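Following up on my earlier message about adenosine-5'-diphosphate. Here are the inputs again, as you asked, copied directly from the submission form:
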Amino acid sequence: MNSPTQPIAGHAIQVLFVTSEMHPLIKTGGLADVSAALPAALGALGVNCRVLMPAYPGLIEAVGAELILDGLAPFAWGPRCRVLSGQVPNSEVPIYLLDAPELYHRPGGPYQDDSGFDWPDNALRFGLLSRVAAQLCVGQSALQWRPQVLHANDWQSGLAAAYLKLNPSNAVRSVFSVHNLAFQGNFSPDWMPRLDLPWSLFAPEGLEFHNWLSFIKSGLYYSDRLTTVSPSYAKEIQTPELGLGLDGLLRHRHESLSGILNGINPNEWDPAADPHIAQPYDQDRLDDKAANRKALSQQLGLNVADDFLLLGMVSRMTYQKGSDLVLDALPELLRRPLACVVLGSGDTELEQRWREWAARRPDRIAVHIGYNEALAHQIEAGSDAFLMPSRFEPCGLNQMYSMRYGTPPIVRRTGGLVDSVTDASPSALASSTATGVVFDTASPAALVSAVDRTRALYEQPDLWRGLQITGMGQEFSWTRSAVAYLELYRTLIPDPSTA
Ligand code: ADP
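Thanks, got it. Here's what our run produced:
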């Protein structure tokens, strides 16, 4: 491996990948999975991709990081910071940690405190990340490495593109990936001078969004190329329904916008070699899946007869994920022979409603509020079918994990769910291309009829097994996604070997 501080020989494209979370170091959602997998997959294709992220508590030790840049003062008035260099555990990916203890060394999550309130200085915390990312690109640092592409992700690094544009000597090209347009990083304009942003940028053709300083708009407006995490979501965010007020800008930039479906980590999500589950299995040993169903039911105190459909759900408990649709459908669902296992956390009211249902029907509904990696795997392996009734879904990972675990997903027809799940229509079943059940309307009634359709399939063992096997055979590799990102970088970077 090349040392992160050595220039690399040859024509490898040099990419600085800026993110606010990365599995297994810190994770709140799919961005962490992407940040773990994509740089590694790009590395395997010969891209020199290095990650920059904040040094949250424990990370310096976790990556064995060493100091490489000290005493940085990205904002004249603001906190000093330093950059350390290390390597992502079990990976070849070099990582730079941005260390500013007063901003990042806190208990709680990366964006919120333990009570679920946003950190009041998030504009500074992620403005600093963006600023340092841009500075590492344009030769204002002593780093012995210069990226050609700055690849920023979501609002947390959205300002990096604006900072790059503000530097006239900048030759670095920028890519901005939207993992979820709903998280926008909108702050009071008072932050403009504090973040060294000239007021001239606070305009509709710039950073202003409904009188807020919008970090995501910075990424969308100033980056050379835009991506989002599925082709369908790339189209949907250009519509008023899912564009969240940014659809006009996205339509304007449609020629620079593309959708690249995320992959999954096939080693981490492998039913044949999953250390978290009771009994490994694969397509040829699918009967062994039943042991996981039994173990999961026992562990959670459920009383699930063999002919009951055990539905699993792992997600943030939010309106986006349709958690409320399932809750509203429960009275009707519970008239059927089925049970539910739910893992997640999120809106306090939704958490409370789930707790109440679990208390009322402990034989049929098991709820675990919180984050639990092992249980997520056990639910994928032990459930019969997986519920994902999202109102919108940029890509979604759990539907892909479910297919791989022979647990057909029941999904709403939106975003990445459209691009990854094939509905069990009669023709798709006949051609062995069906992988799940897809429904249209975001309503409890539509959800109930999708579950009924799933039950009808479940009651036909041959059809059900076909659905499972087709899903397990799907290819959702990161290599395919990484090739698409590499092609995108190549449109920005002329290949010196062909000059
Ligand atoms: P999003 O990023 O919108 O939350 P994704 O489906 O893209 O949704 O990714 C969510 C990731 O987080 C998946 O890897 C999922 O398994 C995981 N996850 C979500 N909630 C939990 C939880 N409570 N416990 C364990 N893993 C979770």
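One observation from looking it over: The pocket of adenosine-5'-diphosphate is lined by residues 29-30, 33, 180, 314-316, 343-345, 371-373, 376, 395-398 (CB under 6 Å). Hope that helps, and feel free to reply on this thread.
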